[in-house]
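Encoded backbone
================
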Amino acid sequence: MFDRYQAGEQAILVHIDFPDENAREDLQEFEMLVSSAGIESLCIITGKRNTPHTKYFVGSGKAQEIADAVQTYNANIILFNHSLSPSQEKNIEALAECRVVDRTTLILDIFAQRARTHEGKLQVELAQLRHMSTRLIRGWTHLERQKGGIGLRGPGETQLETDRRLLRERMVNIRKRLAKVEKQRQQGRRARTRAEIPTISFVGYTNAGKSTLFNRITNADVYAADQLFATLDPTLRKIEVEDVGRVILADTVGFIRHLPHDLVAAFKATLTETREAELLLHVIDIADDRRSENIEQVEEVLKEIEAGDVPQLLICNKIDQLDDVEPRIDRDDQGLPIRVWLSAQKGIGTELLFQALKERLGRKIVKHCLKIPPSAGKLRGALYQLNCIDNERYDDEGNCLLHVKMPIDEWNRLIKHDEANIERFIES
């Protein structure tokens, strides 16, 4: 039995406004986080301070107001829209006689609920253990360093020290397992690099519609919902883009204000897909009043994971929620697409996204007409595997006449490895 109060699902929410922009959090987003965690909000207590109070974070008067609200509403958890120090959590718990959870712990809990894959679960557990390592308190009292008498002495370390040692050992074990998963990911990336298949990664603020758009253009069945952090586990899918060929799309976790550093560190392996992508599709909820702030937060996280220099194509999503906004492509001075306006939910404007991808990723395309005799049927099969055949017919002599279209780098690679000497079949 640990010396902490049991958490529940009925919560008192606490939100404090600070003049410092770096310390300021968004109340509406906090309420969405609480809802995403499956917790019922009983009461919201707000206030203003210039700086956090050392002991209670909110000041002694406001702390007493929180304690009174716990009794009034019979709440069993207090949620803060801020990061608290371990001592501040402990002091408020002692005063209110109720479990206290800060913003970081709440986000970690949501991640733990949503992780589906083995890798995702390991990453979330590692982040939780890192966060927990600073918050260990006295647990069982039966393991003490000294208890006089034969057979009554403790194991030589307090329970707190035992907890810390076990926690460190578990973290080391998880890191080893994640390193093995990352090695497998690197092998997959190397294979795609050798095949010269470009990778496009979805990024954006959480709940911007990334997974909905991903499902729309790949016919995937990735979980998508109107809630924060609906997607945690990265998903890769292959699509065909005209004049580009095969492209790998990666759907990744959404970002949020002040994303806990433990989470960023734990998910760094997953976010490698973003860092090494050829193009980032930055999905924006264009109907959100805070879109400018959300874009800034995404840019900050991209810099933190060393992906700030990767080229971006902005996707202005949810235009169906705005009046008189038509799907379109915005271009820069050189005519290069920089912004696509669409609605992933309604499927409006997705063809414009493919047009923009074609222009941003387009490679030089070669077209040839090949006259392949029946004896070279193996070559015909290889061309079908490359999905590069536009048209096929046969002449009176039984020769296969193929019209092929493919990126020049694929054509050059085919020539290099082709034992049948494909160039001799090209019709003038």
